[in-house]
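Aim 2 progress update. The chain analyzed this quarter is reproduced below.
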Amino acid sequence: FSSTISATDYSISNGRTAPEAIRTPSEIVMFGDCAMATTGSTPTGTALLTPNGVGMMTTYGTVHFRHSGLANIAWADGHCDTKKFVGGNNALKVGYFDTTTRPFDPNYTETSN
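Predicted C-alpha cells:
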C-alpha cells in the first residue's frame, strides 16, 4: 500500500529516539488511539500514530477520536489524557489534535514545521 512515512517520520518508535533522550517527555506522544481513514465507511486499523501532514493513504494524521470525539493519548513521561478532534476526516473521526508536528517530534522547533 501507499505510505508517506519516510526516514524523516516523526514516530519516536522509529528506532532512532530513545524515550529517555526526549528533552520534554510530557509534550511528546508515545502512543494512543489510532486508525487510518480510507475510502470506506469505517476506519482501518493501524499501529502507526502520526500527526497532521504525515500519514498512510492520507496525510492528515492517524489519531482516532473514537470516544465521543476524543482520543486517548499516552505521553513519553507516562501521563495520559484525552485530546479533541481538530481536523481530518470528520465522518470517521480520524485526523489530528494539533496543527503542528510538535507532539510527535522530540526535536521540534518553531521553524521545523
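Residues 1-7 have pLDDT under 50 and may be disordered. The chain has one domain: 19-102. These observations will guide the mutagenesis experiments scheduled for the next reporting period.
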